[in-house]
Write a structure and sequence with these properties.
globular; six-stranded parallel beta sheet; disordered N terminus; 19 helices; 478 residues; alpha/beta
């Protein structure tokens, strides 16, 4: 593991664990303990909240660890049963936890459709889709542990049972940052508002006020519900909000991405490590890569998507198609299976290609601009493909991603989730004619290339399991 160690020293922002465990020497007991620990299987349970953006990025890591010799199983919604089975991993479905099928939160939580205000809908989601599910996930995990005594949990950073695993089950938990960092910082506005840093005197004052307003007014109700649950289970939070507790209770938070795509923080948590872009598992098979002969007929290619969760194609896909009808640009749309046939019927233009799904790693090398509502995984793919962006996302945390795209000059942030065709058309033209956008994306792509996400994750897993083994040894000695 020497190369891993050196790599981590260069790339990770937090250093080695300085808390050394001191134990008395006992040769006989030591040999016995070593033998016990040596032959004990290293079992890892993956877990995620039921949303594609929380599941997909973890798949490549799960396969990598399994191939490295770990025993890997996965706790997730039945929605992902077939995908998990295809990875060769045993699946544990939700039993006590409320199911959300195919990202349909409106169906799972009927009261959601009655809420018109997006802010109130966000508060509703925080409580019902995340906070109230935490004890249910915990019950399922404790039941799983009786028959599959896992040594560690690896989950997405929004999996609200993180503090239960750490404090109640006394197990290490690695959370994967599948969205921009949410931990509160004295240098920034509160997470969730999509605001970029302002280091001026009055800017800092404003950010301090906004952090107070967010905690005590905007997110007061979810924070109260969260703290009540934490108190019921005797989990200490030190008065922190939901986002901060999930970060700080993680033994490690491995952030997908690099420092170049995150705002600078003088108070970055010591348990946070950047690992580069952690992307979904991609199976090497013998099928031909995606290609269309139209790619040779157009000088510029525009790729459009609004992910799988957002099913209303009128928000981004339709205005984007309207913007480029009968133009000299080839427009490729991936719908995620939402309204594909209707779009093909209504937009039969020669310069349009509309598909349910095209692997990003196959289509992005042909594109010149990426139009998106700001899904984190898609943005990571775009940066890796040196592809500048036009981003139109506000809700479900998309505003934070869009804000970073604009702040780091990787593209244009439209600051809306329902742009009009002229906004899209003008922004695309600006990105195509201003070489600075491509230049900044290339710089960040180069930074990405210096990281090996799966190896860095594997190093952290081994590091924590060794530390856990030492703690077990200490318990036996005592």
């Amino acid at each position: 593991m020497g190369p891993f160690h050196g790599l981590c020293n260069r790339l990770m922002l937090c250093g080695e664990n300085k808390n050394e465990i001191k134990m008395e020497k006992n040769t006989v007991n030591n040999n016995a303990v070593v033998n016990i620990l040596k032959h004990k299987p290293k079992r890892i349970l993956f877990a995620n909240v039921p949303a594609d953006g929380h599941f997909n990025p973890l798949t490549g890591l799960a396969v990598y660890l399994q191939e490295a010799g770990y025993e890997v199983r996965w706790y997730a919604s039945v929605t992902y049963a077939k995908k998990i089975a295809a990875l060769g991993i045993q699946h544990y479905p939700f039993v006590n936890a409320k199911e959300v099928i195919n990202n349909n939160f409106d169906e799972a939580f009927p009261g959601r459709t009655k809420i018109k205000s997006q802010l109130k809908k966000l508060v509703f989601d925080m409580i019902h889709a995340f906070i109230l599910r935490a004890p249910e996930y915990y019950q399922d995990l404790t039941d799983i542990h009786k028959t599959y005594p896992f040594d560690m949990v690896i989950c997405d950073c929004a999996f609200t049972t993180i503090p239960f695993v750490k404090d109640k089950m006394n197990l290490p938990v690695i959370s994967i940052g599948i969205l921009p960092l949410t931990e509160t910082s004295k240098d920034l506005a509160p997470a969730g508002l999509g605001l970029t840093p302002d280091s001026s005197f009055w800017g800092m004052k404003k950010q301090t006020l906004l952090r107070f307003v967010a905690d005590k007014i905007i997110f007061r109700k979810p924070n109260m519900v969260w703290k009540k649950i934490m108190k019921q289970y005797d989990i200490e939070t030190a008065g922190a909000n939901l986002f901060d507790v999930l970060v700080r209770k993680s033994t490690l938070l491995l952030q997908s991405g690099t420092p170049g795509f995150e705002y600078k923080r003088s108070d970055l948590g010591q348990n946070i490590r950047f690992i580069g872009p952690l992307l979904p598992y991609s199976k090497n098979n013998k099928r031909e890569c995606w290609y269309n002969k139209k790619l040779t007929e157009y000088d510029k290619v525009v790729l459009i998507t609004q992910g799988t969760v957002e099913k209303d194609t009128s928000k981004l896909i339709i205005p984007a198609l309207e913007a480029f009808r009968n133009t000299n640009k080839l427009v490729i749309v991936t719908t995620g299976g939402n309204g594909t046939e209707a779009l093909r019927k209504n937009y039969p233009d020669e310069n349009f290609i509309i598909e349910d799904f095209i692997p990003f790693n196959e289509v992005m090398p042909y594109a010149n601009v990426y139009i998106t509502n700001g899904g984190y995984g898609g943005v990571m793919f775009a940066i890796q493909n040196e592809l500048p962006m036009v981003v139109a996302g506000v809700h479900e945390g998309k505003n934070e991603i869009a804000a970073r795209v604009g702040y780091f000059n990787l593209g244009i942030n439209l600051r809306t989730e329902a742009p009009i065709p002229s906004q899209i058309r003008n922004s695309v033209e600006k990105v195509l004619t201003d070489a600075s956008y491509v230049s900044y994306v290339k710089q960040l792509c180069n930074e990405f290339s210096q990281y090996d996400p799966r190896q860095l994750c594997a190093y952290s897993v081994e590091e924590l399991l060794k530390e856990s083994a030492l703690l077990q040894k200490q318990v036996i000695y005592n």
